[in-house]
Amino acid sequence: MTLPRKDLFDLPEGVIYLDGNSLGPVPRGIGDVVQRVLHDEWGTELIRAWNNAGWMEAPQRVGDRIAPLIGAAPGTVAMGDTLSIKVFQALAAAIKMRPDRRVILSDSGNFPSDLYMAQGLIGLVDDGWSLRTPAPEDLAEAITEEVGVVMLTHVDYRTGRLHDMQAITQAAHDAGAVMIWDLAHSAGAVPVALDASACEFAVGCTYKYLNGGPGAPAFIYVRPDLIGDLEPALSGWLGHEAPFAMEPAYRPALSTERMRVGTPPVVQMAMLDHALDVWDGVTMEEVRAASMALSERFIAEVEARCPDLALASPRDPSKRGSQVSFAYPDGYAAMQAVIARGVIGDFRAPDIMRFGFTPLYLDEADVIEAARIVTDVVNSGVWREPQFQVRSRVT
Ligand SMILES: *Cc1c(COP(=O)(O)O)cnc(C)c1O
C-alpha cells in the first residue's frame, strides 16, 4: 500500500490540513453510514436495532479493530464515553490496586484534563492521595517506592516529545507502581506495543489520528490478567455481567466489558467503525516512516527560511510523535494568519505553533507549500493585522 491515501478523505479544496492531531478530517462515505444508521436502523428497526443492527456489540467490535493499532490483543479494549472519563476509570481502578501507596505521578507536560481528573479523584476519595508533576525530563528520579500509580501521556500534546513506553513502564513496575498510558496522540500516529509493554492500563481518544469525528467514543485498555479483579468506579448497567437481568446489585462483566458504563453513542460508533477502514492494508510502521519523512522535510524548509521560529519539538524524529511545534512569541496571531492562507495548524498557550503530520492524506508537496506559507507569514509580519489578534474560544 502506498501513502498517501487522499481519496479516502473528503478534504476541502485549497486547504493543507496539519491539524489531524486535534481533529481528523472526514473519511469519505461517512455520510452514507450515518444515513444508514438513521434510516435503516434507528428509523426502521427502532428499539429492535439494539439486537438486529448489532448496536449492543458495536463497542466490542470496534474495540477489537482498535486493538491491533495499539499492539493489544482482541478483547482487551472497551469503547465509550470521552477520554477524560476513561482517564478517571483507569486511575480509580489503579489506586485501589495499591492501597499501601498514596502518590499518583504524572508530569508537568501532561494534558490538563488528565491532571484535572486526577485532582478530582483525589478530592473524591479524600484518603491522603496526592499528585506529583515533575518536568518530563525529571521523571526517572521521581518514580520512587512512594508512587502507587504512574499516569503519563505517551506523546506530549505541546512539544510532541515521545516518552519511552517500555523503559518507563519497567521503571514503574520495578518501583511497585501501576502504569497508565494515555495514547491520545499515539493511536494512529506511532506504533505502540501495549501488550509487550505490560502496562496495566491505556486510554485514548478516537477523534484525533483515528478520524472518528468530534465526540467520537474513547477507548480503554486493561491488561487481560487484571480484568477479573478490577473494581470499576463507574459501575454502570452496561458494565454489568447481565444488564437485562435488572439485578439490584452491581456484578461486573467478566470481560473488558466491565469498563463500559451506559448507553454507547451509536451513531458516533458507526462513524468510527467506518473511519477505521482507512487502516486496512496499511501498517503503523509505514505510517510512521512517512510521517517522520514529512516532519523532517517541514522542519528543514522552515529553518532554512525563518530563523525566528524556534523548534520546540525534539530534533531527533525517533524521539517525537507525529507533530512538530515551533515556539514564536506572537504564535497565536501568526497561526491565525497561516490559517487564513489555507494551512490549518493550531496554537497552544503560551507560544506554541503546532503542526500535525498525517501521511494518510498529506504528501511532500503539501508540506513544502505549508512551510512556504508559514515562513512567509512570519517573515512578512502580516500577522500584525488586527483581524489576526482576536482570540477565539478554541485555539
Ligand atoms: C485530546 C486529549 C484529551 C481530551 O479529552 P476529552 O475527554 O476527549 O475531551 C485528554 N487527554 C489528552 C492527553 C489529550 O490529548
UniProtKB/TrEMBL annotation:
GO MF: kynureninase activity; pyridoxal phosphate binding
SUPFAM superfamilies assigned to the protein according to its UniProt record, in alphabetical order: PLP-dependent transferases
Entry keywords, A to Z: Hydrolase, Pyridine nucleotide biosynthesis, Pyridoxal phosphate
Gene Ontology CC entries for this record: cytoplasm
Pathway as given in its UniProt record: Cofactor biosynthesis; NAD(+) biosynthesis; quinolinate from L-kynurenine: step 2/3; Amino-acid degradation; L-kynurenine degradation; L-alanine and anthranilate from L-kynurenine: step 1/1
EC number: 3.7.1.3
Catalytic activity: 3-hydroxy-L-kynurenine + H2O = 3-hydroxyanthranilate + L-alanine + H(+); L-kynurenine + H2O = anthranilate + L-alanine + H(+)
Enzyme class: hydrolase
One GO term (biological process): L-kynurenine catabolic process
Keyword Cytoplasm found: no
A Pfam family reported for this protein in Swiss-Prot or TrEMBL: KYNU_C
InterPro entries: DegT/StrS_aminotransferase, Kynureninase, PyrdxlP-dep_Trfase, PyrdxlP-dep_Trfase_major, PyrdxlP-dep_Trfase_small
Coiled-coil ranges (or none): none
Cofactor(s) essential for the protein: pyridoxal 5'-phosphate
Hydrolase listed as a keyword: yes
NCBIfam families from the UniProt entry: kynureninase
Protein task: Catalyzes the cleavage of L-kynurenine (L-Kyn) and L-3-hydroxykynurenine (L-3OHKyn) into anthranilic acid (AA) and 3-hydroxyanthranilic acid (3-OHAA), respectively.
Subunit structure: Homodimer.
Family: Belongs to the DegT/DnrJ/EryC1 family. Belongs to the kynureninase family.
PANTHER family (alphabetical): KYNURENINASE (PTHR14084)
UniProt name for this protein: Kynureninase
Organism listed in the record: Pseudaestuariivita atlantica
